[in-house]
Amino acid sequence: MKLDRIFLFILACLIPAACADLDYSEENTRDEEWTYEYFENGIKNMVFDLYAQVYNNEFENNSAYFLAGATDEAMYALETGAVNNYVNGGWSAANPYSRTWSKCYTAIADANMFLEKFDQADITEWQYNPDYRIWVQQLELFPYEARFLRAYFYFELLRSYGDVPLVTTTLTNAQANSVTRTPADQIVKFIVDEIDEIASHLPVTYQTEVNSEIGRATRVAAYALKARTLLYAASPLFNTSNDKSKWAKAAEACKFILDNADAWGLKLSNYGSLWGHDAFYNPELIFGLGRGDFNSFEMANYPVGVENGSSGNCPTQSFVDQYEYQDNGETFAQRYPGSIDLRTVNPYEGLDPRFALTVVRNGDEWPTNGAQKKAIEIFRGGFNAAPKYGATPTGYYLKKYVDGACVTTADNQTTRRHTWILFRLGEFYLDYAEAVYNATGSANNAAYGLTANEAINVLRKRASVNMPEFTEDGEAWVARYERERMVELAFENHRFWDVRRWKKGPQYFRTIQVAEISPSLLLTRATVNRQWDDKYYFYPIPMSELKKNANLAQNPGW
């Protein structure tokens, strides 16, 4: 079992949250003497503090990847859910909501300081400690891990803000508050150059390293970060002139991962095993965020009516409409464009198997634990539906990432481990397909050794999916690709960013469809209007930062 690839699993289990102040400051409260002379509680903890900052800044304990609620994937059931700020106009430079700026620059400041001071690390007085040899070997990797993490934080800043200050040295407060924004292309170059320099120094696996620790960056994770960065750099939001060479670089970086997957021990897995109690064993996972046993996520996302359930992230009809049927590839929306009488028709029969693993529909027995298992009633007046407060506003509940084995009753509760996906092999088949299509102008061009359609069909022909193959080209291919990406990567925190980098916000995010099911089981669609402004393609730089630094220019429209 490839435990080493579940990067970050140890973070939530073994270390506290990062102790750095979230204000953007180059100051650090660590005492250098003990930091660089003590391994476990000094040097190693400083590196682990950097890892802890990778903990998704859009994540809340009770809702996980709730960015879905700001997309056409889902609506967050409770109006008070913070994610609704993205779609109700509550988002501004004065109320930037996201912690990305402060979190990333705090981590980058810590990484810069660590890298500059690392030469003074001296643990020789511990040479008689039985773990001394292990510590010395781990020390050799720490600078490369810190550089990987710094590059990761710059990617988060890039996709959120575009041009951002590139800071690679420690600064005084005065210097930090006078930096200027660096063009996005230079940020991309920095990330790619860093990965090219450090990747060979990181192990492919930690199974051959001392202690075989999991939760640390590998060469595979580094190349995954490079490939995703280049895909974003080639996308319309950043590549305004549609420079084909940028798509070519992205295609080459993704193909490198696909070509080396077997040698690295990666392979596509059963779709339903990508999450759940044992997901950290999954051979498809490249970089993931694991947490110890808990059930707060289930409490947030179990349906209202299930004891302690709060509905949480509810998939939309717009999302369900993207699924295709196994017989001919027709979508749900194409086959059932109008009202559906659920008493006489089961529109979910024959759908892509990924649907049943992702979405809870009316009549499903959910959750799966024996203490709470029952048929879910989502028709109006049903046990899990309106007019109950907090019931799904979309006609569906979320199953993906939700562990139905968790018991959430007042007594005899059970908990399970959870792993959130940051990078997995399946993503790079899709990334490659998009890049090679745009680089060559065709979904059937094999210039890079694998056509875009062939790459997607590898995913679709998995035994757990087995859907009709892609054969399209041109605009028809683009539309189907965007559906496939939404389905395959559902609730993995991609949709929010994909639609932005494609610059298709008005097309996908301005209105969404939800399902309303009457007591007589007639399903009809209703339209929900959401606020969208093209300034939303990038986050606003926090007003607090602009007040401190007059050299920072705000993103357009904010």
What are the salient characteristics of this protein?
globular; single chain; 37% helix; mainly alpha; 19 helices; 3-stranded antiparallel beta sheet; 558 residues
Strand order of the largest sheet: 6-11-10
| First-residue to last-residue Cα separation | 49 Å
Q: Helicity, in percent?
A: 25-40%
The number of distinct β-strands equals: 11
Low-pLDDT residue intervals, each spanning 5 or more residues:
1-30
Query: Whole-number average pLDDT?
Result: 88
Shape: globular
Total helices: the number is 19
Rounded to the nearest angstrom, the radius of gyration is 24 Å
Q: The biggest beta sheet, please?
A: 3 strands, antiparallel
- From N to C, what is the helix and strand string? HHHEEEHHHHHHEHEHHEHEEEHHHHHEEH
Derived from helix and strand composition plus strand pairing, the structural class reads mainly alpha
The multimeric state of the shown protein is: single chain
